[in-house]
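Changelog excerpt

This revision adds worked examples to the README so contributors can see how folded entries look when concatenated. The first example is reproduced verbatim below.
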Amino acid sequence: MILDKETARKTAELLLQIKAIKLDAQQGFKWASGWNSPIYCDNRIILSYPPIRNFVREHMARQIEQLYGKADVIAGVATGAIGIGMLVAEYLSLPFAYVRPEPKSHGRKNQIEGKVEDGQTVVVIEDLISTGNSSLNAVKALQEANLQIKGMLGIFSYGFETANQNFKEANIELHTLSNYDYLLEVALKTNYINQAESELLKSWHKDPANWKK
């Protein structure tokens, strides 16, 4: 869900500006999943732009306070949300931890890195939501450590129905600063794409697995 429409539009504008999000309705990109896609998103590049990372950090922190109140810990999903999650935790003067995709195979075999304690409340930070599987894998690890999840806040979501369903089934509240709908609105308004490209991008969103097969 989107909490603030103007923040959603501004976030989309900034992500396009620094090419954290690239749109190519003609050639497209190949995702690791094998999908062909007209969009590629790498929000880690935000960290290289201090004014923009500060914008994201402050708006995420404010939304956390508004949505979830006070938490005991901020947890980032590795690897993409480690950097921004740590900045948000610093802004809120809260402890930070991050969650690996799976436990290490050596040493203490941690999946959660950082000090956490039974019963603590956690807000999870994510950089990008696609199907939601990796995000919810991190949530599961935190829950198995007896931590209480207040919710998740991400930078950007593709807004796939499968992700909405996955979060609903997991009973996890998800909000993002921006999403695919606001991205297309901003991209069209700023002439980053034209109307024909906008329609092509909308068609991909309806059936992403079979686009350009």
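The second example, added in the same revision:
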Amino acid sequence: MSKKQLTKKAVILLIWLGLWQITALCVNNPIYFASPAEVATELFDKLRTAEFWASVGGSLIRILSGFLASFLLGYLCAFAAHRWKWVGDFLSPFITLLKSVPIAAVVVILLIWWGPRYLVLCISMMVVFPNIYSNMRTGLSGADKGLLELAKVQRIPLWECFFWIYRPAYLPSLHAAASVSLGICFKSGVAAEVIGLPEFSIGERLYRDKIYLNTAGVFAWIIVVLVLSAVTERLILKGMKQLAKVPCAVVEEAVATRDETKGQAANAANEQQVLSARGIRKSYEGKTFVDTDVTMNKGCMYCLKAPSGAGKSTLLRILAGLTSPDEGTVEAGRISMVFQENRLIEQGNVYRNLLFAGCTGDLKAKLAGLLPERTLQLPASSLSGGEKRRLCIAMALLCPSDIVILDEPFAGLDETTKLATAEWILAHLQGRALLFTTHETDPEILAGARTVALYKYAK
């Protein structure tokens, strides 16, 4: 924080203290309204007692235990509800109840059931859980659908999807929910203590000062709660930020090398035919876009050429298992795919994106001739459109698979770059089947490819 900002905050604080002092002078009755000096004296006296620190410690343990328990529960339940729709449907009435029921009524019921022992813990969980759960659901629903499809096609492990797709989506919502929930948790927790009067609590001490008409003491405890809430919120949110930091710009080159023996063995074990799609048919609003059979063999190249909107991407999504056909069946080996649009972890660098896609081998050496070395440590968000496109191609070609599907792979590339990229693709195909799409007006980049038709009887 700059010196100017500190000065500004100090001036604002002095103005409010001045208004406080003027109000106290006008009231002129310490029982109704204590002055800043009286409150400061009372607070100083409390700080010197062991009972004060025991009360503060007891309240912190109760309130933070409730917050952390409900935070974890809301976090896990949100993931479960996102994964299984029935979980969300099952929890929906409970969440509505927690948001609507009066806290005072719940306090009375809990006092009847258990007394004050678990009152603060339950109330803290009651006010925090719905907030964490709802914000997490919102964040998870905003996860990049394109990256999730890429992960499904290329069989990317669940933990990678969690860390690089879901985590960036829900962190802003979770951070905001935690900030709001902490303040509510302290207010409701101390209010519950005032009602339940558990031993060694701020609420019990505050209630005692109220009985003795010690207004300065009440004000002192209010200040203590505000300070505890602000400090705790800052510490927890700072801890969350530290845990959420993602290495965007640098990934050690040693990490960018994976053993490719497993992938090669998997490829070698496959039979000649790697894809068989029989009787595939797909229609939208009464119009048929796909009606064909497709068979692909290892080591062969296939070209799907048709105008935009003819159904090329629809057929590719069916073959990749992302779209279900109206009729027909698809049997395919492992697929790696480049989509029409770039699907990248924007905050991750080139190596991070390749590792996310499951790429193996000496990645730096394999990227030679495709991407300039200066780009390898840059986040994907700072790459040019052509560099992003070539990175997507590398993500499909450098990971273990039986079939490589490229949907408009050369979009946005100039003629020279197209030819260089096509040569790089052929050099790294390693005997796999290749299926790519192109417009009728595009030049023939990969010569010798067999034609795949969208319709069985197309000429």
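Reviewer comment on example two: The radius of gyration is 31 Å. Residues 194 and 203 are 4 Å apart (CA to CA).
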